[in-house]
Design a protein that fits this description.
Elements: E1 3-11, H1 15-23, H2 28-31, E2 36-39, E3 54-61, E4 65-76, E5 80-87, E6 90-102, E7 105-116, H3 119-146
């Protein structure tokens, strides 16, 4: 399966602060570069990420193509959490968020493994570049919001 991994240094923030920021559901649409619409009664302003929690949202790909996702939080610890797609526009999607103490701040890492519905040809033509763009933008947005 393809993997996208991005690591960003966030100065003057502890791992606990960075992880807490990520666990607040209200921050999800702030760091995501495309519009997100919560579904099925999810109040994004009252969504705290916790193990076992499931929620659905619509992600507007390229700002115009609606893709509905249902995700579950598989794990949460003081150094990471993992979300996994149950239903959505891909065959598989697993996203690990990790924090690690680093001199003067925190290293934040997103590691995503995925499989496109169209397999390797579609991954090569569209999905790999799309994933890289999304996660580069997420990291820019996190830096802006946490600096």
């Amino acid at each position: 399966m393809p993997v996208v991994e991005r690591t960003t240094f966030i100065a003057a923030r502890s791992p606990a602060q960075v992880l807490d920021f990520c666990l607040e559901g209200a921050n999800f649409p702030k760091i995501f570069p495309e519009r997100i619409t919560p579904l099925r009664g999810v109040d994004i302003n009252n969504l705290r990420i916790s193990a076992g929690r499931q929620f659905s949202f619509r992600h507007w790909m390229w700002g115009v193509i609606p893709a509905t996702w249902t995700v579950v939080i598989r794990e949460v610890s003081d150094r990471h959490f993992v979300d996994e797609m149950l239903k959505g526009p891909l065959r598989a999607f697993r996203h690990e968020h990790r924090v690690e103490a680093c001199d003067g701040g925190t290293l934040y890492t997103d590691r995503v493994t995925y499989r496109a519905l169209g397999g390797a040809p579609l991954e090569w033509l569209v999905v790999n570049a799309y994933m890289a763009r999304i996660f580069e933008a997420r990291h820019r947005n996190m830096l802006r919001l946490l600096s």
